[in-house]
# Entry
Amino acid sequence: MEIADLISIDGVVASLRVTSKKQALQELAKRASVVTGQPERSVFEVLIERERLGTTGVGHGIAIPHGKLSGLDRLHGLFARLETPIDFDAIDEHPVDLICMLLAPESAGADHLKALARVSRLLRDRNVCEKLRGTDGSDAIYAILTESAASHAA
# Structure
């Protein structure tokens, strides 16, 4: 599974302006609604429900909010670089500025876990994260995500 299978160029936000975790999830839900055709409220509720189980702020400024949503026919991802880092209740207590959201069909099973592992492996690479933080524009971010992903293939 490649990052390009999960995230399209339309799913990349180069400079998301939010001030809280809730606002970030609301904005991502709004954008995911357009990409997936699912109701914004349903996407937001799935993300909030998952956050109640434990934070998806994995440390080093990265969060990977995710959930399963009925009505999806495949996995969908969105990537956002925040204009200003926010408190995301991350496990290392550092603010988050890179968010990769994943939404999976209810029936996704192992594919959902494989996608999470794929994104996690990519974003653990500090060089990739430095490039993502240091570039401008959705096209450039998408190129970094998809080019770097090829060198981190499972």
User: Anything to note?
Assistant: The first helix runs from residue 3 to 6.
